[in-house]
Structure formats: structure tokens, C-alpha cells
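Case 314 in the screening queue. Each case pairs one protein sequence with one candidate compound; here the compound is zinc ion. For every case the pipeline is the same: read the inputs, emit a complex structure as C-alpha cells, and attach any notable structural observations.

Predict complex for case 314.
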Amino acid sequence: MRTQAIDRTLFIMQELGKAGIIGRPDEENIAILCPFHSETAPSLYIHKSGTAYHCFGCKKSGNWNDIAEFLKLTKIDLKNKTIIDEPDSEYMTVTTCQLVDRSIKNIVKPVPARAWKGNWRGLSQNFLLDINSFLWFEPSTLGYRIVWPINTFKKTRGWLGASVIKGDISPKYRNFKGLSSTKELFPVDYVCNHFKNLKTIVLVEGPFDAMRLISNGIPALCILGTANWKSEKSYKPSKKIPILLAMGIENILCYMDGDDAGREANELIFMDTSKFFNVAFFPLPEGKDPGDADIEIIQDMVYFVDVKFGGFFR
Ligand SMILES: [Zn+2]
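Case 314 output:
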């Protein structure tokens, strides 16, 4: 048996990730939703050493190995400070910090990623699975990420991720290395497969904005951040435009965030695309974005699309 001194916190959080459970670490403990009783706010605390846990809801207590037994996860040799069982090879790659799989040319893929279980920011589990969401544990920041492949015309052209827990020590969104952010839109294949005879598309800033609109039946693509519409120095039209043309899009509604960067991007995209498409922008109220705007505001936008372009479909 191979033994290895592994940081207990890291190990426990990785193991929880396998069961689709999100651990929230503080100074001493990792808080989780108790697997022994039903709850919506975490009341089970596991000591980072794994030597003890206590649930303030159902009053169960014990150590990490009791939880591991129940969830069929890997136990810890609590005396020897080593792992009893050798972690499976997939997880070994994480503990040795090889975060990337370069099997696809130049594209960094977060491994190991597991199918997403559960909701996220109001999006349903079914929708998130359908759009290819994965749960990925990032050892360098001890953070859980929800990650998506960028699939465009049946090719994976990169990966992007978002923090699962608000206030995580990491950027809210992350475009993984190897992704040409100025050439891609998200989620192209999902939109092509779910909206037929599309003539109008809504362009938004971030992945969540696009997913929220899509889950409300509105065809939308995100530009992966205002800075990524095109490279700053380029006078040529954005390299994202060929994707829209290949999709048969005729009309574009720019629907960026209601802030300075969003308004600037609306104008830039308008100027850039008006040679190829009918384009309009529909500004959001100050401080609002398509991800958090009230449904009434979004309905106004849909009404505008009907009037301006005769709707979304041919
Ligand atoms: Zn409990």
C-alpha cells in the first residue's frame, strides 16, 4: 500500500466533491449540508483533521471515516495521518497538482470533473446537466467550480468555469488556458440544438446571463466578457462574427450589463456587426444585468425583439 502525506482539508474536500457535496472551509472546520438529515443550510461541521464531526441539526457526531463509510468515500488512517486506501488514479492527478489534460491540442481541460448534481443560482439540475455542466475541485484555491466545455459546431474549443460559492478567493469566471476568448461564444451547440429556425440572437456578457435567458426560452449567447468581443488593437470585425453567420443569424440584440463597460460594449458590437446583421441594443437599467434583472425587464426586451425584428424565429 502506498501512503502519502496529504493535506487533510484538501483530501476531505475532494472526497466530498465526488459525492457532489460542497464543503465550505473556515479556520477550523469544513461545513457541509448534513447527509444524515434533510436541510437547506449547512449545519454539519467536520474538523479539518478529519478526527471529529458534529451536526447541530440532527446531533449526530463521529469522525470523517463515519461520513466516508456512509457516502462510500475514501477513509483516512486517523492515527498515521495517511490515507488508508490509495485514492483512485484520477484523484491522484489532482493531489499531485497536474490540473490539466492536454490530450486535446492546446486546450486545458479541468480534470477530474464530474457531472453536476443539483441546482446553481436558480438554474435547475436538468438544465445544467443538459448544458454539460461539471463539478470540478480546484486544489490551488480549495474552491469548487462549475465548469462547462465550449462546444461549437461539435468541437470542444475550450473550457470555462465559475465559482460555486460567493466570495471564493478566485475570479467569478475563468476562461481556461487554450480557449481563444476573442473567437468564441457560449453555448453555441446548445442554442443550435434547442432553437430551430433561429433568425434573432441576444448577445450578453457572461455565461450565467446567457444560461438564465436560455432557461427562460430566449436564445442567447455570451461573448465571454466585454473585454473579449475582440482584441483591443484590432480594427477588423470580431472573430466571433463567422459563428453567427454560420448559424444563419440575421438579427442581433446587444443586451450587455447596465454599467459603463456594458454600454461601451453595446456600442462597439453595434458598430462591428451592423455590416453583417440587423442590430439593435436594448439598454438595461443602471446596475442590472440579464442574470439578475427582474423577469418584467426581460419581457420588455422580448417585446422589443418582436417589434424590431418580428421575433426570434423564422
Ligand atoms: Zn444532521
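Case 314 observations:
- Residues 295-309 form the longest helix (15 residues).
- The two ends are 64 Å apart (CA to CA).
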